[in-house]
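User: Quick sanity check before I run a bigger batch. Here is a single chain. Can you write out its predicted 3D structure?
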Amino acid sequence: MYSEDKGFFYWTTKVLSYQLDINKEISTMAIAELLQEVAGTHANYSGFGYNDVIDKNMVWVLNALKFEVLHRPHWDDEIRIKTWVVDSRRFFSRRDFQIFDSKGNVIVKATSVWILYNFEKKRPQSIEPMNFPVKLQAGIYAVDKPIATSKEVLDARAKHSFTVSYSDLDMVGHMNNTRYFQKIMDSYSLSFHQENKLKSIEIQFRNEAKYREQLEIRTRDNELGFVHEIRRQSDDKSVCLARVEWS
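Assistant: Done. Predicted structure follows.
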């Protein structure tokens, strides 16, 4: 069930069994999936989504996503997701989110950056001339600290390798954004997940990954948690950079 009010979009749903992790709480990937889905639903509902831009040879591309987890809901818990567009500057648009429990408490805070990409010209499209029917919520942030942009490259220490499989692909044939969250979580041991709670995760996407490509996760620890970089083995290009904090 969803609704919109003065530019704020709301979606009420329940946590389903297949969205759970081993701790019987909503998984990190499921959170990423819900945020991506509600962003697309809001854009389509309001007239600036996939169906409105695809005929113009354009598509919205997720450039970065960060969320902070205050509490994880359990199976069959009702949650309410709120999202809004904060601003648009040239090629980039910021969208924020809050997830509430059934009592109205904020349990997840998130922010994201999107790029409008013209796949015919193979370059970003300036957003302002498009005159999309969206009410911007300037200065209203779910997450105070913005997503860090970095050109950091990690060394080859602590590698975890995997191959992009069919089930990783999205509808345009690239590795789905949400799968990066899953692969990074998979690089931790079972005992680590049982003994630690994810506090926050942010991913900055750099290049696409395609079917059967060999990727590796390079990991370095810091004072807050871990920094991960996923690189393509064939050309050593960086696919994404992630920062993960645990408590």
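The mean pLDDT is 94.

User: Great, the batch can go ahead then.
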